[in-house]
Design brief:
The complex is a heterodimer of chains A (579) and B (600). Chain A has 579 residues and is α/β, with parallel strands linked by helices. Chain A has a domain at 2-317: ABC transporter type 1, transmembrane domain (ABC transporter transmembrane region fold). Chain A has helices at 2-7, 16-48, 56-105, 108-113, 116-144, 146-158, 160-167, 170-214, 218-255, 257-270, 276-288, 291-318, 373-380, 403-407, 424-429, 437-446, 450-455, 473-487, 503-517, 552-558, 561-573; strands at 335-343, 348-357, 362-366, 388-393, 396-397, 410-413, 491-495, 521-525, 537-542, 545-550. The longest helix of chain A has 50 residues, at 56-105. Chain A is elongated and about 125 Å long. With 600 residues, chain B is an alpha/beta fold. Chain B has a 6-stranded mixed sheet, sandwiched between helices. In chain B, strands 2-1-4-5 form a 4-stranded antiparallel sheet, with helices on one face. Chain B is elongated, with a radius of gyration of 36 Å. Classes of the chains: A alpha/beta (579), B alpha/beta (600). At the A-B interface, helix 2, helix 3, helix 4, helix 5 and helix 8 of A face helix 2, helix 3, helix 4, helix 6 and helix 7 of B.
């Protein structure tokens, strides 16, 4: 049952129709064999019973019957085909939409811990495997048992001893297949490890090739890559070498029933307990009966593989989502951290932090790297929920607010900007769906990106590449500021928005930021302390704790961490490149 | 490299694999296919024996029949064992090919210009190295022996059938042929072809938009785009499904007919058989022939069908090989036969023109750039983004070679220096750093593999790494990356500087805009750089104009050309681009965020 659940990515009821129709179609496909057996009986009747005539007319009737069965087969295959394929594509499409929707509701923290390539592959590749599973493998597997079951039932009437010798090995073969699954998992672990290792080494080699060349290490590092490839090769051969015979043994056992049947049959024949025709029937059936089962055995591995794809999807769908109401947000946009403790799974990054960021004020967060600055912003945007304590917006715990609803009131400008594979205009319009061209242009002007956009070949209709690779860092940054301006949210979060840009870009971005923060609740992380010296409140964090806060001048007077950082930075400004 | 070979033979050529194993695998697979037919034949002989003595069962040669039973089992086991051996041969060959391809291609990558592997090409190369190579492996390991055995059993069966009775043989093959014609007619028709293309297009689209959807998730969340209003992904997905459904509908009758015909060999054989039988009702030999066909016929269609399916997969191999060839066709940096060594370390650009694209008419990233960076002095590159600063810096360590002009170190054209010598002469520290999955010690010692622990520690101290390293649990033996520790961006960069210090190359190319994550880090980084630059010929991409006020030479670039040059004071006197930049720069220094306008 769990298998069915998995291979359909959580929708086993969708299997009912395809399996049912495939069953019917398979039953029809048994009929030709029955007719042919009758034909053989007729053809050989004259040789068995002396004096009997060859009944040509009846044989013609059988031929007519075969033609009729062929038509019937065609008709029965149509619903089997339709339900299987249409069902599979619909399940996959629904499933993809559901998964996409689910991903959106998961805490962003969960998503950032995973490789985005992995998730995208799940959305596409894994669902394709589920498609194949539903449209192909499962109906085939179900169908594979129809012929043997019908044959067994029919043959039991004819002669139970022969029928049993025909199928006696089947349970053993199935047991071997089942056990081999475990063996494969055990052996597979080593293989998987080697495979991962090789992939990681390859990644390292590709990413580090410049460093390797720069330090003349291509040879030495190559040895490590080479040895990981070699290990993978050995593990692959080992896996194949050990596992292959198991499947072959199962197949051999299954088909050995034929020989057993000959043995039993001859003895029964000589003992006069079995007619020649009966034996002939058994032998004819015996040559073909195992084919569907063998195919099913051969496909079993693929089936399990596809099932695992479904399992991955089901597992992901099981991850708890963030909930909350979409009731109107509080009037006030004052943000308060109340004894917040939070960690990314390990050591807490924020430790019993209590801070307040009043409505309409500009709050800066400073501190050494790793002090938890960015984490504060992530908790405000509810990318994560705190482990202890609470984050309050206008007095309401944001845990009770639907994350998307909450984000409707928050604009975030990250250090690294993601642009969608769409036109520049649409990328800005992400800030406010349904914005007019005028609104977009106005926001772009305020963010100082209008001019460079107009220089592009198609202006606002210029497409940008995946990840926005065709624009410079500063340009992307300004587009994200335009987005935020267009969004016009009461809360603005800026995470090192001006880090590592050249002076021109920086000057432009600064103008954009000025336009963005006017009249809002602003929380900013900035590494250049000079840029935040006008903040209403500067929160200084160290090691996840609040060490001091206040205005620039007051903090300098205190002579604490802020003062030290300030002085270090003053020194840095005097830095000269000399040799 | 011979271009005439394609597909399989080119594959073997690239992989340097001999045919031996594959031929052995083919032979074994064919033998297996033949042996697998033995059980059917045995049953036929048993039946023949039974029917000959049909009227008097007591006379049946029971020993012979049981012998046939054992022969059937023997054939089966023999067939399975040879099939296993054949598959093992093909697997070993496949894994060897896979291994050789990977090694060959990664080795080739190592010889390509440094610039070749950038962000975009890394993904494509990785795809070629993993997916295409895996596909080749899969084909050689599984599909090739299948193909051979299907071919062997089909040929054998067809020959036997025609030898016994041509009319019945035709009747047996007819439905398969009709089915094939029906299917290929559907596939090849104009409509069919376009819909295949449309299908692949929409598949590609949905793949791209799925990747985008996941990667853009933070933005999707921040801007509250629900899955349905996330128009592109949803509509691509719907379109894909619709194509699939249309596809399904289109091929419904063709596919079902094909499947039905494949399963209907009796329907064709029996009438012909009955017709022939009615002409010779007493011929037992013909009755036996008919029986033979009825037993064997259902076994003909499946290998034949397999043969057809597999034939199309050889196309995949062709495509994979083509991709690999494209990678292998990238020109490696040529090895110099009589390399020259520089004895001085000034760097000179003479009329350097360079474009990232080889095509005619491509915009030049640098045009006719000439300058001389004095030995032991600082030359700074400034200019707006896209002006060519980074390009100048990346030409010195030969990430790329210029199309025109020359770059010389101590008078020696860098193209005439041995690569390892050039690398020993030039150190570069750019924004992107890369640490190996290894210990910190190993990561720094990269700069000088024979370095002693003292030397490594001295370099680490000079690069301001000593302090944070000593705080780590295992100090210098701490593992970086998975299962070890992750360093901050600033720390990683200082490790890179430590490497460069240890390497102690006379020419240094660096990008000043190292990620100054916080004031402390910035301070440390500056101390580290000061240490690194001492006494070197420095070419630096400067971002803060204040830091290069004392540089011996400042080159101002715009649109790939040097528009101004000189030291700080003379450039200020010039009152040109540099002066403008200097004013902007001094301006940004004063900027700070402040609340203005009315409150919300």
């Amino acid at each position: 049952m769990k298998v069915l659940h998995n291979i359909t990515a959580g929708k086993p009821q969708q299997l009912l129709k395809p399996v049912l129709f495939s069953f019917l179609a398979n039953i029809v496909s048994v009929l030709p064999f029955a007719l042919v057996i009758e034909a053989v009986r007729l053809i050989f009747a004259p040789y068995i019973t002396v004096g009997a005539e060859l009944q040509i007319e009846r044989l013609w009737w059988i031929c007519a019957g075969l033609v009729a069965v062929m038509v019937l087969m065609f008709l029965s295959e149509i619903p089997a085909y339709r339900t299987a394929y249409r069902g599979a594509y619909n399940v996959a499409a629904q499933g993809r939409a559901e998964l996409a929707e689910h991903l959106r509701k998961l805490p962003l923290g969960y998503l950032t811990r995973r490789d985005p390539g992995d998730l995208a592959n799940m959305m596409m590749g894994d669902f394709t495997l589920v498609e194949t599973g539903i449209s192909h493998l499962l109906p085939q597997l179900a169908g594979a048992f129809v012929l043997p079951i019908f044959a067994l039932a029919g043959l039991l009437f004819l002669d139970w001893r022969m029928a049993i010798s025909m199928f006696v090995a089947l349970p053993v073969a199935l047991l071997i297949m089942y056990l081999s699954g475990r063996l494969r998992r055990r052996l597979g672990a080593d293989h998987m490890k080697a495979k991962l290792n090789a992939a990681n080494r390859l990644q390292e080699y590709l990413n580090g090739i410049r460093v390797m060349k720069a330090y003349n290490l291509t040879g030495e590092r190559f040895v490590r890559l080479d040895s990981s490839f070699r290990t993978l090769m050995k593990e692959s051969v080992k896996l194949e070498g050990i596992f292959g015979p198991v499947i072959l043994t199962a197949m051999a056992l299954l088909r050995a029933g034929l020989t057993l049947m000959v043995y039993v049959g001859v003895h029964l024949l000589l003992g006069g307990e079995l007619g020649i025709l009966q034996l002939a029937v058994f032998l004819i059936v015996g040559t073909r009966i195992y084919d569907p089962l063998t195919t099913a055995l051969a496909n079993y591995a693929e089936f399990r593989y596809n099932e695992q794809a479904g399992e991955r999807i089901v597992d992901l769908l099981r991850q708890p989502v963030m909930t909350g109401t979409t009731a109107p947000l509080p009037e006030s946009s004052t943000i308060r951290f109340d004894n917040v403790t939070f960690g990314y799974g390990g050591e807490p990054v924020l430790k019993q932090l209590s801070i307040e960021m009043p409505q309409g004020s500009l709050t800066a967060i400073v501190g050494p790297s790793g002090s938890g600055k960015s984490t504060v912003l992530r908790l405000i945007s509810r990318f994560y929920d705190p482990d202890e304590g609470s984050v309050l917006l206008g007095g309401r715990n944001i845990k009770d607010i639907d994350p998307e609803h909450l984000l409707g009131s928050v604009s975030v400008v990250f250090q690294d900007v993601y642009l969608f594979q769409d036109t520049i205009g649409n990328n800005i319009a992400f800030g406010r769906p349904g914005a007019s061209q005028q609104d977009i242009q106005q926001a772009a002007e305020m963010a100082r990106c209008h001019d460079f956009i107009m220089k592009l070949p198609l202006g606002y209709n210029t497409p940008v590449g995946e990840g926005g690779s065709t624009l410079s860092g500063g340009e992307k940054q300004r587009i994200s500021i335009a987005r935020a301006i267009l969004k016009n949210a009461p809360i603005v979060l800026l995470d090192e928005a001006t880090a590592s840009l050249d002076p021109q870009n920086e000057a432009e971005i600064q103008k954009g930021i000025d336009a963005l923060i006017t009249g809002r609740t602003v929380i900013v992380i900035a590494h250049r302390l000079k840029t935040i010296r006008g903040a209403d409140n500067i929160i200084v964090l160290e090691d996840g704790r609040l060490v001091e806060q206040g205005r620039h001048e007051a903090l300098l007077l205190r002579g604490g961490l802020y003062d030290r950082l300030w002085k270090l930075q003053q020194q840095s400004v005097g830095f000269r490149i000399t040799s | 490299m011979s271009k005439t070979k394609t597909g399989m033979s080119r594959l073997l050529e690239i992989a340097g694999e001999k045919r031996g194993l594959l031929i052995l695998s083919g032979v074994l697979s064919s033998v297996s296919a033949v042996l697998m037919l033995v059980p059917f034949l045995s049953v036929y002989f048993i039946l023949a024996e039974l029917l000959r003595h049909a009227s008097s069962p007591g006379q049946v040669d029971s020993d012979a029949m049981i012998r046939w039973g054992w022969i059937a089992l023997g054939g089966l086991i023999g067939g399975l064992v040879t099939s296993y051996c054949g598959i093992m041969c093909s697997h070993i060959a496949a894994f060897r090919i896979q291994y050789n391809l990977r090694v060959r291609m990664t080795e080739h990558l190592g010889r390509l210009p440094l610039g070749f592997l950038n962000g975009t090409s890394t993904g494509a190369v990785k795809k070629t190295l993993e997916q295409n190579v895996d596909k080749v492996e899969n084909f050689v390991a599984h599909q090739l022996p299948d193909l051979v055995s299907a071919l062997a059993s089909t040929v054998l069966m067809i020959v036997a059938m025609f030898w016994l009775s041509p009319p019945l043989a035709v009747a047996c093959l007819l439905p398969i042929l009709i089915g094939m014609v029906v299917q290929s007619a559907l596939m090849m028709s104009g409509k069919g072809k376009t819909s295949v293309k449309q299908y692949h297009d929409s598949l590609e689209q949905i793949n791209a938009s799925a990747v985008q959807y996941v990667r853009g998730m933070p933005a999707v969340k921040v801007f509250g785009q629900t899955v349905h209003s996330f128009r592109k992904f949803y509509s691509d997905m719907t379109r894909y499904r619709d194509y699939c459904l249309e596809f399904t509908d289109r091929y419904q009758s063709g596919y079902v007919l094909f499947k039905t015909l494949l399963a209907s060999s009796f329907t064709f054989i029996l009438p012909v058989g009955v017709y022939m039988l009615s002409g010779q009702p007493d011929s037992m030999s013909f009755a036996l022939v008919l029986l033979f066909f009825l037993i064997m016929a259902p076994g003909v269609s499946s290998p034949l069908y397999k043969l057809l399916m597999l034939a199309s997969s050889t196309r995949d191999i062709g495509e994979g090989v083509e991709r690999m060839d494209r990678l292998l066709a990238q020109q490696p940096v040529p090895e110099i036969i009589m390399p020259l060594s520089p004895h001085a370390f000034d760097v000179e650009f003479t009329d350097v023109t360079f474009s990232y694209s080889e095509e005619e008419g491509a915009t030049a990233a640098l045009s006719e750039v000439s300058f001389r960076a004095e030995q032991g002095k600082v030359t700074a590159l400034v200019g707006p983004s896209g002006s060519g600063k980074s390009t100048v810096a990346s030409l010195v360590p030969r990430f790329w070679d210029p199309q025109e002009g020359a770059i010389r170190i101590g008078g020696v054209d860098i193209r005439y220096m041995a690569i390892h010598e050039l690398m020993n002469t030039v150190a570069f520290v750019f924004q992107e750093t890369f640490l190996f999955y290894d210990t910190l010690y190993e990561n720094i010692a990269v700069g000088k593999p024979e370095a002693t622990l003292d030397e490594v520690q001295a370099a680490a101290r000079a690069a301001q790494c000593d302090e944070f390293i000593s705080r780590l649990p295992q100090g210098y033996d701490t593992l970086i990356g998975e299962g070890g520790v992750y360093l901050s961006g600033g720390e990683e960069q200082r490790i890179a500087v430590a490497r460069a210090i240890l390497k102690n190359a006379p020419v240094l190319v660096l990008d000043e805009a190292t990620a100054f994550a916080d004031p402390e880090n910035e301070h440390h980084m500056q101390l580290a750089l000061t240490e690194l630059m001492r006494g070197k010929t420095v070419i630096v991409i400067a971002h803060r104009l204040s830091s290069i006020r004392e540089a011996a030479q400042i080159l101002v670039l715009r649109d790939g050309q040097i528009v101004e040059r000189g030291d700080h004071d003379s450039l200020i006197d010039l009152d040109g681009l540099y002066t403008k930049m200097w004013h902007v720069y001094s301006g940004t220094g004063d900027w700070h965020m402040e609340k203005g306008g009315e409150q919300l």
